[in-house]
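Re-run requested by the PI after the first attempt was lost when the workstation crashed. Everything re-entered from the original request form. Ligand of interest: uridine-5'-diphosphate-glucuronic acid.
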Amino acid sequence: MKIAVVGTGYVGLVTGTCFAETGNDVICVDIDAAKVEKMRNGEVPIYEPDLDVLFERNQRQGRLKFTTDLKSAVDHADVIFLALPTPPGADGSADLRFILGVAKDLSGMISHYTVVVDKSTVPVGTAERVHEALAKNLDESLFDVVSNPEFLREGVAVDDFLKPDRVVIGTNSEKAEEVMRRLYEPFVRSGNPIIFMDIRSAEMTKYAANSYLATRISFMNEIANLCEEVGADVDAVRKGMGSDSRIGKRFLFPGVGYGGSCFPKDVQALARTAGQNDYDFQILNAVMAVNDRQRLRIADKIEAYYGDDLKGKTIALWGLAFKPNTDDIREAPALYTIDRLLAAGANVRAYDPEAMDNVKELYGDKITFCEDQYAALEGADALAIVTEWSAFRTPDFGRMQEALNHSVIFDGRNLYDLRRMVEAGFYYDSIGRGV
Ligand code: UGA
């Protein structure tokens, strides 16, 4: 099939590349000419495991092209995916400027039947607004608008796209349904469902899924904090709970709060939608408040440990990205930790396998960036772990003790066995497990 993807952020690029991988003819459009030029020269603009291999292969074989010229892509395409940013506006609701702007442009360009697909996370009712914008200069027989929310996780986005648990499609058109079925069938050969529904429900599904997952995380973070108070071990509790098939084992890990470009924004946007509909969505407000508090949990622990003596102390920080396998630092708990430490007069020596350049842009020389995880420990009074990169899971503890001034670890991701750490002579404070 002939596809255009408008917007080459991480969703757009993964979507375009993976559709090319199943033999479709894909043109990706972006207004950023420098970025398009780089992609034409084979440069993948984001770090996402496996994307480079698929990108290179499909570009070489001529199925994946890049342009700044929307019109040429529209002439080419039978299906146009809108994968544009929806940043939170001043009032917390998603800002639809980009999507509606492109829909308006498309209205003057489409000249044959085209399925226009909302791939971005957009509030309920957006597809109808896209439809209106398209219908301005366009006969309604020439297009259908479909909602197709994405459930990709950063760091495993390619795998998630190629092997989705489910595909959700919101449409009221049989013609569009058939187009979408043909596009996605190769990805669900294992038998996972393509779930067709009305457009508003599809839009709602995305927010409900992300908000539910965020709720699970905030809930577990509260359980963990309470475990610390009552002398229980949240790891044991998590396993005990998660083995109930109604609950399930995944997404029950307490930590330093959820971050990234999705959960914080989507929970806020859904709460906003509720507000606009005069519905007081109480759980969501609590989920956000708990997360605001939890992302400072490690800084709180460090401050409690040092009391007034934190000024002038040096804290090593392992992990800056909001989660492993990405260089993304949007809403990363590490940033909140750094801000608090700097405000208290501490020095920070940081290491992250992928995200250091992004953090350098924000902090410059206010913190020290180190070339590897052990270098970060040199002369530090304590280590704080904020992101669970695999390389942090089985470190050389002897080497750590040699490098650190004191064997003190604040672990926001519960990477190590509590008993072993104590036996090895560490002061080891993690989340929900006692010290
Ligand atoms: C999330 C969803 O998982 C995807 O399904 C969705 O498509 C995506 O948002 C989106 O809307 O685009 P992502 O933000 O990439 O994906 O990351 P997750 O792996 O879901 O992690 C989100 C946050 O929750 C991270 O800060 C992570 O550290 C935290 N988390 C996750 C926990 O604290 N505990 C857990 O048990 C799991």
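Saved to the shared folder this time. The CA atoms of residues 351 and 372 lie 6 Å apart.
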